TrEMBL record:
Its main location: cytoplasm. It is found in: Cytoplasm, Cytosol. This is Rab proteins geranylgeranyltransferase component A. It comes from Phasianus colchicus (Common pheasant). Residues 409-536 form the RAE1/2 domain. The keyword Nucleotide-binding does not apply. Substrate-binding subunit (component A) of the Rab geranylgeranyltransferase (GGTase) complex. Binds unprenylated Rab proteins and presents the substrate peptide to the catalytic component B. The component A is thought to be regenerated by transferring its prenylated Rab back to the donor membrane.
Length: 613
C-alpha cells in the first residue's frame, strides 16, 4: 500500500545539500508538508564539515570502488502495469582520486584516541587513509531526528568555549585586526603571488610549536573540515594596496564607479557581451596590473570562462557588499560551511518538516500516461506518494545523464603549523589568489582559516585550495602547495623556517554539476527537479538562486523564505491582552506557541540573508 502524503507535500529525495535544504526550509515556511531523506548518516552531502576522524572515514569510503547491490528486488512488485521506474544510483560517484598524506612529526605512541575513536599513527609522508580510517569513528551519529543538527551540537559543546554562538546561526563577521598587516590579503595577494619576489611566505622568526600527528587525532573534534570552502572574510580595503600607484588607484576608482551603474551605460559594454571579462578589461584604460587586480582580487572570476556581463555583476556585488558588516565584504560561518545546510534543515524542522537519515530511495515511480512522477520506493520497500520531488544530480542514473557534460573541481585540504601571511595577529581568515603559471590554466583560490573560526585546533591552520580541474587534484594543486609550504617532516638544526609546514594533506576531485540545463537530462518528469552540487565560485550564489528558482516554479504565488515577523510588531486583540494580564487566556490560539515557533526560525532565516549578501 502507498504511504499516502497529502498532495501539498514536497518530497526531498537524496541529499541534504545546501540547495535542497534551502528549498525544504522555504516550502515548510510557506505551509507545505516536507519529507527530507538522505541515504547518508550525516547532513550536508558534499557541503558537509567533518571532524578529523570523520574525514578519515569519508576518505576511506570514497576510496572504495565497490557498488552497492540490491539485496532484494521485492520492491518491484509495488510497480503497477501503467507505471515505469527511473532507477537511482545507490552510491555517490562525484568524488574521485582521493589521496591523503601525513607529514607531521611522529611520537612514541602507537595508538592514539580521539573521544572514543582509535587511530594508528602512520609513517610520515605516507598515505593515511587505509591505516587510520579503519579505526576512526564516524563523526555524526545517524540520528533520525525532527531537529537536524542535534548530533553536531554535542560536538560543538566539546570543541567550543562558547557553544551558544553556534546555535544562533553560526555566522560571524571577522574584521581585519591589523589593517596594515593585511595588505597582502587584498588584491595585492594576487599580484605578489605571480612574481618571483613574492614575500607572502614570510613568517615570524620564532619557531612554531611542534604538532604531532597523534595530537591532531586526539584533538580531532576541534576540527570542522569542509569538503568545499566558501564565503571567506578578512579583506583590507582594496585601495590600501602598495602595489598600485596613485594614478592607478584613480583609474580603478573610475572603473569601479562604472561597474556600480553599468546597466545604465549599455553602450560601453554591448559590443563585448560575447567576450570574456579579461578581454573587456583590455579595452578599458587600465594598466596590466589593474586588469590583473580586478580579475583575481575584486571580481574573483576565471580568466577563461567568465564573460563580460558575469564579470561586471561580480565586481558590482563585491562593491555592494563592502561596509555592510564592517570593512569586509565577506562573512564566514563558524564551525565550517556544513553548518549552513543544517541551519536550513533546522528551520524546515521548526515548521514541521520530517527528516530521515540513512534512508535511501530505490527509484522514482512514473505514470506512463501523464508522464509525471507519482511516488518513490525506499529501501524498506515502502511506497511514498507526493506531488513534487527533488533529487540531487549525483544520484541520477547514467541513462538519465547520458547527454550531460560535467566539469570537475580540484580540491586540497591542508593542516599547517603557521600562517602563510606575515602578520602580527595569530587569529585571522585570509584569502589568496594564485595566478596561473601557464596561459590557459586556472587560478587557484587559497583560503586559510585560524582556530578562532572553530575549524581547527589551537596552533594549527586549516588551508583550502580550489581550482577547476585539468588533471587529478594532486597534479593540479601540488605545485602551489610546494610553492607556499614546506613538506619536510624535519628541519635541519639552525635552519630558519621560511614557509609554514604541512602536517597533513588530502587531495580529491569533486564533480561540478552547476549550470546544467534541465533539458540535458533524458526522460525526466516535469515534477522532478534536479539540484546541483557545489560549484567553483567563492560564494553560495548559485545554490541560493537555484533553490529560489525551483521553489517559484513549484509555488509561483508563494513568497520565497519570508522573514518571520518581529514579535514586537504582532498586534493582539484587547481580549487576549486582558487575559494575559490576569493570567487567564481562553483564546484557542495561544500566543506562547506562536511566538516560540516564529522566534525559533529567526536564526535560520537570517542565514539566508547572510548567504545572499
Amino acid at each position: 500500500d502507498d504511504c499516502s502524503i497529502p498532495s501539498t507535500t514536497l518530497l526531498i529525495v537524496k541529499y541534504t545539500c545546501l540547495p535542497e535544504s534551502i528549498i525544504a526550509a522555504a516550502c515548510a515556511r510557506s505551509g507545505q508538508r516536507v519529507l527530507h531523506v538522505d541515504s547518508r548518516n550525516y547532513y550536508g552531502g558534499n557541503w558537509a564539515s567533518f571532524s578529523f576522524s570523520g574525514l578519515l572515514s569519508w576518505i576511506k569510503e570514497n576510496q572504495q570502488n565497490t557498488d552497492i547491490k540490491d539485496e532484494s528486488e521485492d520492491w518491484r512488485k509495488l510497480i503497477l502495469e501503467n507505471e515505469e521506474v527511473i532507477s537511482l544510483n545507490k552510491k555517490d560517484k562525484t568524488i574521485q582520486h582521493v589521496e591523503a598524506f601525513c607529514f607531521g612529526d611522529q611520537d612514541a605512541a602507537e595508538d592514539v584516541e580521539e573521544a572514543g575513536a582509535l587511530a594508528r599513527v602512520p609513517a610520515a609522508g605516507t598515505s593515511v587513509a587505509e591505516e587510520v580510517a579503519e579505526e576512526a569513528e564516524k563523526e555524526c551519529s545517524p540520528l533520525e531526528s525532527s531537529v537536524p543538527g542535534a548530533e553536531n551540537w554535542e560536538s560543538e559543546k566539546a570543541s567550543s568555549t562558547d557553544p551558544a554562538s553556534a546555535e544562533e546561526g553560526n555566522i560571524t563577521e571577522i574584521n581585519s585586526e591589523n589593517e596594515s598587516s593585511h595588505n597582502t590579503a587584498s588584491g595585492e595577494s594576487a599580484l605578489e603571488l605571480g612574481k618571483p619576489e613574492a614575500t607572502l611566505s614570510e613568517v615570524s622568526a620564532q619557531e612554531p610549536k611542534k604538532i604531532t600527528y597523534s595530537q591532531i587525532v586526539r584533538e580531532g573534534r576541534r576540527f570542522n573540515i569542509d569538503l568545499v570552502s566558501k564565503v571567506p572574510c578578512s579583506r583590507a580595503d582594496v585601495f590600501n594596496s602598495r602595489q598600485l600607484a596613485m594614478v592607478e588607484k584613480r583609474m580603478l576608482m573610475k572603473f569601479l564607479t562604472f561597474c556600480l551603474e553599468y546597466e545604465q551605460h549599455p553602450d560601453e559594454y554591448q559590443d563585448y557581451k560575447n567576450s570574456t571579462f579579461a578581454q573587456f578589461l583590455k579595452t578599458r584604460k587600465l594598466t596590466p596590473s589593474l586588469q590583473h587586480f580586478i580579475l583575481h582580487s575584486i571580481a574573483m572570476v576565471s580568466e577563461n570562462d567568465c564573460n563580460t556581463l558575469e564579470g561586471l555583476q561580480a565586481t558590482r556585488k563585491f562593491l555592494q557588499c563592502l561596509g555592510r558588516y564592517g570593512n569586509t565584504p565577506f562573512l564566514f560561518p563558524l564551525y565550517g560551511q556544513g553548518e549552513i545546510p543544517q541551519c536550513f534543515c533546522r528551520m524546515c524542522a521548526v515548521f514541521g518538516g520530517i527528516y530521515c537519515l540513512r534512508h535511501s530511495v530505490q527509484c522514482l515511480v512514473v505514470d506512463k500516461e501523464s508522464g509525471r512522477c507519482k511516488a518513490v520506493v525506499d529501501h524498506f520497500g515502502q511506497r511514498i506518494s507526493a506531488s513534487y520531488f527533488i533529487v540531487e544530480d549525483s544520484y541520477l542514473s547514467e541513462s538519465v545523464c547520458v547527454n550531460v557534460c560535467y566539469r570537475q573541481l580540484s580540491r586540497a585540504v591542508l593542516i599547517t603549523d603557521q600562517s602563510v601571511l606575515k602578520t602580527d595577529s595569530e587569529q585571522q581568515v585570509s584569502i589568496l589568489t594564485v595566478p596561473p603559471v601557464d596561459l590557459g590554466q586556472p587560478a587557484v583560490c587559497v583560503i586559510e582559516l585560524c582556530s578562532s573560526t572553530m575549524t581547527c585546533m589551537k596552533d594549527t591552520y586549516l588551508v583550502h585550495l580550489t581550482c577547476p580541474s585539468t588533471k587529478t587534484a594532486r597534479e593540479d594543486l601540488e605545485p602551489v602547495v610546494q610553492k607556499l609550504f614546506s613538506l619536510n617532516a624535519e628541519t635541519e638544526k639552525g635552519e630558519e623556517l621560511e614557509k609554514p609546514r604541512v602536517l597533513w594533506a588530502v587531495y580529491f576531485n569533486m564533480r561540478d554539476s552547476s549550470g546544467i540545463d534541465r533539458n540535458s537530462y533524458s526522460g525526466l518528469p516535469s515534477n522532478v527537479y534536479v539540484c546541483s552540487g557545489p560549484d567553483s565560485a567563492l560564494g553560495n550564489d548559485c545554490a541560493v538562486k537555484q533553490a529560489e528558482t525551483i521553489f517559484q516554479e513549484m509555488f509561483p504565488t508563494e513568497e520565497f523564505c519570508p522573514a518571520p515577523p518581529n514579535p514586537e510588531d504582532i498586534i493582539y486583540d484587547e481580549d487576549e491582552i486582558t487575559a494575559e494580564e490576569t493570567g487567564f487566556n481562553n483564546s484557542p490560539e495561544t500566543k506562547p506557541e506562536s511566538s516560540l515557533q516564529e522566534s525559533s526560525s529567526r536564526g535560520s532565516t537570517g542565514v539566508k540573508e547572510h548567504i545572499e549578501e
